[in-house]
Automatic annotation (TrEMBL):
Signal peptide as annotated in the record: 1-20
Lineage: superkingdom: Bacteria
Annotated ranges, domain DUF1214: 302-412
UniProt-listed SUPFAM superfamilies: VPA0735-like (SSF160935)
DUF1254 domain: residues covered: 61-188
Gene3D superfamilies cross-referenced by the UniProt entry: Domain of unknown function DUF1214, C-terminal domain (2.60.120.600), Domain of unknown function DUF1254 (2.60.40.1610)
Protein name in the entry: DUF1254 domain-containing protein
Length: 432
């Protein structure tokens, strides 16, 4: 999951803090139909601007960029990095015809290739869950009427512009080379045709005019008969005075951030993703929350990301204390799981914690972990390195506040339906 939208981060960087209890935009919306219309239009438009901004930062269209190194504590380009997968990423323009995606056969190695609309809906996901045999896929717009390239599997997508994001698992440091080769086997071929570029700039700190221009261009490129255009027609505030948007953008984004905790269901101190994540339909509030806090999120059937900020007693997690998380044997996860430690910056961004072992996460691929006799595994969470054998199950924390993220790829029915829940993080005695 690519956390924390770039455009939103820039907006928030110059703003004053807001507490979760303050909801000025919501209060204004309750008193004014115009403010309510602006709030609703913002929830619809924010993901579109975020995707346009992200697209503008890519080196080229119809080209994949490969990230073949795992992140560490120095990685600050993307918040909430993972220590599990390598990525390939590229924005596609299907206007000139099919883009051919080649997916190698990768049995025994988790991988996924998600294709998302500019509204952040996952239109298609290929990979381990759908079959590891690989293949050549012709990605084409539903409006395309030309021939389907030979020896390809047609995949029709309800979009012109889309984002392809591939993930390939790394099974430890010694597997980085083979994982990189597997990732580079995912390729695309696009028609040799000059494409119409986006005309609207997407500045890091847009005013109302720039924000609206970029959003409207995304909608226009989708076409008048698209679902996106039909939805946009119901948000009259998109035609409001840009000056009104200029005044509202930062407060609206601050409020969106303050409501991120509501984007999940809290059980045992863990925030579980809501059912609509990754597909959204008409839930534009959830769509905008995930665009801010988890851009590129997969649907629950593919992966679930759980976060914890409090312990079993409801107290904030802090490196001033020590904790234990007892994970049961044989959790209902078909792919893999990991538990990752993050320190939180003042603006809300999350990054790895530097430590002597360069250990940023533990998981089912951690060969050093030792299980109890009943098969359960105790994870010891504290700032200081434990002496003795228990260091193998140590997850280093910062000295101050921290956040835990549990990633479960290919969750099974018990995790999806809520009959299985992660146990809480419990305060324990510090291990000297």
């Amino acid at each position: 999951m690519i956390r924390y939208a770039i455009a939103a981060a820039a907006l928030l960087a110059t703003a004053s803090p807001i507490s979760a209890g303050q909801t000025p935009a919501t209060e204004a919306a309750a008193e004014s139909p115009e403010a309510a219309a602006l709030l609703n239009a913002y929830h619809f438009a924010f993901p579109l601007y975020t995707m346009a901004r992200t697209r503008s930062l890519m080196p080229a269209i119809n080209t994949l960029t490969y990230r073949t190194a795992l992140a560490d504590e120095k990685s600050r380009d993307v918040t909430t990095p993972n220590n599990d997968t390598l990525y390939a990423s590229g924005f596609l323009d299907l206007a000139a015809g099919p883009v051919i995606l080649t997916l190698p056969a990768l049995p025994g190695r988790y991988h996924s290739v998600a294709v998302m609309s500019m509204a952040t809906d996952n239109l298609a996901i290929l990979g381990t869950r759908t079959g590891s045999q690989g293949g050549r896929y012709a990605l084409m717009s539903t409006d395309y009427t030309g021939p389907v390239p030979a020896d390809t599997i047609p995949l029709r997508l309800a979009c012109r512009d889309c984002w392809l994001l591939a993930r390939v698992i790394v099974n430890g440091a010694e597997d980085l080379g083979p994982a990189s080769e597997a990732l580079k086997g995912i390729t695309i071929e696009a028609p040799a045709t000059e494409l119409t570029a986006f005309a609207s700039p997407t500045p890091a700190r847009p005013d109302g005019a720039a924000f609206l221009a970029a959003v409207k261009e995304v909608i226009a490129r989708a076409g008048p008969s698209s679902t996106l255009a039909q939805q946009a027609a119901s948000f009259t505030a998109l035609e409001a005075d840009p000056a009104e948007w200029s005044k509202a953008l930062v407060p609206l984004t601050l409020e969106l951030r303050s409501g991120l905790a509501d984007a999940g269901d809290l059980v045992n101190g863990w925030s579980y993703p809501k059912f609509g994540i990754g597909t959204y339909e008409d839930d534009h509030l959830l769509r905008s929350q995930i665009a801010l806090g988890g851009l590129g999120a997969l649907p629950r059937v593919e992966a679930m990301y759980l976060s914890a900020r409090t312990d079993a007693a409801g107290a904030p997690l802090s490196g001033a204390k020590a904790y234990t998380l007892r994970l049961p044997y044989n959790m209902p996860i078909g792919g893999f799981w990991s538990l990752t430690m993050y320190t939180q910056e003042s603006d809300g961004r999350l990054f790895f914690v530097g430590n002597a072992l360069s250990r940023f996460a533990v998981g089912d691929r951690s060969k050093h972990l030792r299980a109890e006799r009943d098969g359960s595994t105790d994870i010891f969470i504290q700032a200081n390195r434990p002496e003795g054998e228990r260091v193998v199950n140590w997850l280093p924390s910062p000295t101050g506040p921290f956040v835990l993220v549990f990633r479960a790829y290919l969750p099974k029915a018990e995790l999806l339906d809520g009959s299985f829940r992660l146990p809480p993080v419990t305060e324990s005695e510090r291990i000297p």
